[in-house]
């Protein structure tokens, strides 16, 4: 009997010499966590030596302090409806319920909403709030209670609102003036403008005769300037009334003396007092912002920028009709409106304003700052003949009028030396361009 045996091969093991076993993976890197030692923090305090004061410790942390509430203390505990009721019925003095307006606006009420509820227009709301702030600023200069009580009644808010443009010290002086003269809101507005404008008028005639610290003198000076404008416009009756008003408010003796002299002098006497009608003193003034709008009379002149345009500019610029519409005999591109100052009063025929980029064409010495400012030179073309050595004329430095010569303001004596007998016109006024009113701006410490 036969037997069969089958040998089944064994699979190779991993440890076979033919397939080497892979190396074991490297152990993971372990970073030890440092153990923080809980050591107590110690500080050494050295007591001060005898007789030595310990150093002051500065408090670096300042707790929050909310701004002071604008609402008077007796109204702070009231709710919104109660405040609206006080404002609607005008309960109490105006300066007490006026601070309720900004507090209600902070709560979300629009000015139009307050107008519907309380019946106070937006303009009146602004007036009351500003006037109450002005009244509050008067407490700092220590104004007396009698003067302050004058503004507590009806109409006081309108008076205080007008002097808001003044400094704190000026407000106190203005308030005292308003009380003594029992002024109304219109007079208060004029006083505030006169006090603010006074220091900007140093170049005006008679300025040094008035006291800048006196509200009465400042107001009198504004009426004096108005009188000069009326005189230039040949309105003698209005001139006399303005001088009379100026005398009512003038305080200093020098101002009163000047006004008395002007009041006793008539325009015809002034003309007779001119010794030499050919010799003209040229005023140099700086325009102020808004000055034309405040002038009672103006002059309209054509403007030239080239020498050829001086003669070609229109001659007749006279206002006609009920509205004083200015008509010229020809079309012209450039015009300027100036207050009717005395040197150019009546210069409706033959007048021309020549614009120069700077003041270097003037024959006198000036500061470098002023020489850089643009200017307008107003000339009377009816007076071309070079008569006076001390007068000034529009002419050429070389005197020949060639294209290479520069148009300038030249003394009559210089033109005569160069053999020039006729100019482009006699200079009657030099005007500087308006500038920002730096001198009139209130500094931070003056705002209240």
TrEMBL record:
Signal peptide: none annotated. Residues 282-434 form the Rubisco accumulation factor 1 C-terminal domain. Pfam families: Raf1_HTH, Raf1_N, RuBisCo_chap_C. Residues 79-138 form the Rubisco accumulation factor 1 helix turn helix domain. Residues 20-31 have a biased composition (Pro residues). The keyword Chaperone applies. Residues 155-261 form the Rubisco accumulation factor 1 alpha-helical domain. InterPro entries: RAF1, Raf1_C, Raf1_HTH, Raf1_N. Residues 1-32, 46-76 are annotated as: Disordered. The keyword Cytoplasm does not apply. Keywords: Chaperone. One of its GO terms (biological process) is ribulose bisphosphate carboxylase complex assembly. GO terms for cellular component: chloroplast. This is Rubisco accumulation factor 1 C-terminal domain-containing protein. The lineage of its organism: Eukaryota, Viridiplantae, Streptophyta, Embryophyta, Tracheophyta.
């Amino acid at each position: 009997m036969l037997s069969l045996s089958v040998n089944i091969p064994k699979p190779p093991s991993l440890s076979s010499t033919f397939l080497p076993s892979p190396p074991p993976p490297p152990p993971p890197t372990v970073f030890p966590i440092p153990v923080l030692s809980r050591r107590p923090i110690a500080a050494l305090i050295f007591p001060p030596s005898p007789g030595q004061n310990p150093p002051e410790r500065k408090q670096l942390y300042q707790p929050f302090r909310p701004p002071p509430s604008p609402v008077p203390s007796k109204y702070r505990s009231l709710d919104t409806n109660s405040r609206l009721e006080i404002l609607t019925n005008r309960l109490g003095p105006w300066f007490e319920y006026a601070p309720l307006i900004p507090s209600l606006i902070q709560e979300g009420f629009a000015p139009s909403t307050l107008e519907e509820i309380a019946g106070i227009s937006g303009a009146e709301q602004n007036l009351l709030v500003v006037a109450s702030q002005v009244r509050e600023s008067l407490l700092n200069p220590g104004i007396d209670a009698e003067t302050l009580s004058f503004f507590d009644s009806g109409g006081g808010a309108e008076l205080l609102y007008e002097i808001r443009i003044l400094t704190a010290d000026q407000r106190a002086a203005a308030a005292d003036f308003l009380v003594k003269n029992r002024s109304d809101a219109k007079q208060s507005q004029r006083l505030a403008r006169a006090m603010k404008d006074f220091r900007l008028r140093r170049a005006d005639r008679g300025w040094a005769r008035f006291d800048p610290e006196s509200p009465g003198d400042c107001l009198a000076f504004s009426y004096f300037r108005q009188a000069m404008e009326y005189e230039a416009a040949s309105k003698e009756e209005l001139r006399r009334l303005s001088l009379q008003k100026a005398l009512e408010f003038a305080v200093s003796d020098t101002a009163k003396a000047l006004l008395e002299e002007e009041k006793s002098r008539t325009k015809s006497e002034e003309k007779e007092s001119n010794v030499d009608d050919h010799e003209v003193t040229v005023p140099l003034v700086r325009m102020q912002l808004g000055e034309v709008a405040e002038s009672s009379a103006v002059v309209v002149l054509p403007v030239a920028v080239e020498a050829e345009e001086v003669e070609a500019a229109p001659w007749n610029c006279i206002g006609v009709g009920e509205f004083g519409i200015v008509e010229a005999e020809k079309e012209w591109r450039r015009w300027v409106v100036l207050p009717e100052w005395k040197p150019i009063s009546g210069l409706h025929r033959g007048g021309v304003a020549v614009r120069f980029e700077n003041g270097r064409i003037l024959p006198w010495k000036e500061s470098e700052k002023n020489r850089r400012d643009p200017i307008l030179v107003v000339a009377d073309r009816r007076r071309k003949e070079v008569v006076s050595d001390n007068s000034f004329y529009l002419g050429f430095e070389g005197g020949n009028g060639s294209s290479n010569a520069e148009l300038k303001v030249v003394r009559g004596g210089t033109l005569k030396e160069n053999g020039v007998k006729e100019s482009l016109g006699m200079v009657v006024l030099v005007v500087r361009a308006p500038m920002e009113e730096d001198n009139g701006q209130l500094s931070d410490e003056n705002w209240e």
